[in-house]
Structures are given as structure tokens and as C-alpha cells.
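Milestone M4 deliverable, item 7.
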Amino acid sequence: MLQITPRTAIPLSEIDLSAVRSQGAGGQNVNKVSTAIHLRFDINASSLSPLYKERLLNLNDSRITKDGVIILKAQQHRTQEQNKDDALDRLKALIQSVTTAPKPRKPTKPSKSARKKRLDGKTKRSQLKAQRGNLRDEG
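Output delivered:
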């Protein structure tokens, strides 16, 4: 079980983990050992609450496909076990980010003095620009 919150947990059977070869330079073992972990988690088929599913699907995150599958690749560490733990931690952090409700925005208005100050600044700027105009020779 992957414990997300005290009341929410995901069975590991819902998470698809597969070992793949890491990218980049790595010496003698790079072409022989599959240490990177590819994690796939289907949001729609999971046992998460419908509220969490909806919030996850509404996230604008490149790690979530249009089909509602979270794909994470962990390859920072040298061992498969460390990469597996890293991938699970990142999945847990992503799901935890939607467990708290977003704070509602309170609409505000600028104060009278702030509006007056803004208009005074615009007037001063306008006068300054008007002085830059063509000057006529009088005489």
C-alpha cells in the first residue's frame, strides 16, 4: 500500500512499475543493467475518491496523458530500488498536491486613494508627453 494521507491509500497492484535502461552516460553497466523505473498509474481505474480523480484529471501537468494515465520515469539513482522509491515518492507528492482544497479567491477593489493616485500619475505623464510636442516659433 502507498499511503497518501491518513485516510487515503493506493494498493501497489494499481501501480505498474517496469524496469528500463537509463539514458545518458553511465560507463560499463549502461547497456547491461536496467536501473531506471517507468511508473504508470491509471487515474480512472484507480481506487481514489472521485473528487481526487477529478482534481488530478484537471491538473495541467505534462506527466498526465489525455487518457488519464500518470507516467513517471525515475533514473536519477544508480540502483533500481532507489529509483523505484523515488518514482513512488513523486507519485505520492503529485496525488497529495490535490488532496487539499484550493483557497477561494476573495475579489478586492482598489481603494479611493489608490484610484486617485493612479489617475494623478496618468495626468502627470500625459502633461509630460504633451510638452514634447512641436514648438511653434512666435515672432
